[in-house]
Task: structure prediction
Amino acid sequence: MGKKFFNIDLEGKSFFKIDDISKYLNVDKEVINYWEETFPFINSKTNSDGEKLYDKKSIDIFFRINELLTKENLTLAGARRKLHEEIAKREKVESFKDKISWIKTELLQLLTTLKDKR
Result:
């Protein structure tokens, strides 16, 4: 079972119920609900039965929160600040990757155009 920040695959599922998360992290459901209120990065959906469902990105965030609080002994405010920094850094890297991909596409198109003019 891979429990990596932003890169987990728990039983091949796409969405998870709060009971699943509580079991995987060994914390009460009330803690999960509190973290969802405290950390704005977590998104849930509600199914037809009114149960909250969380996607893999949110699950990864829950795992990271748990790690920051238990292994790094941060306060909730400290964990929120650190997680915000990590997410901002990840988004910056993704943006950079997107720009590089766009430049590569443009260069390949230019190369094709130059080859066609020969």
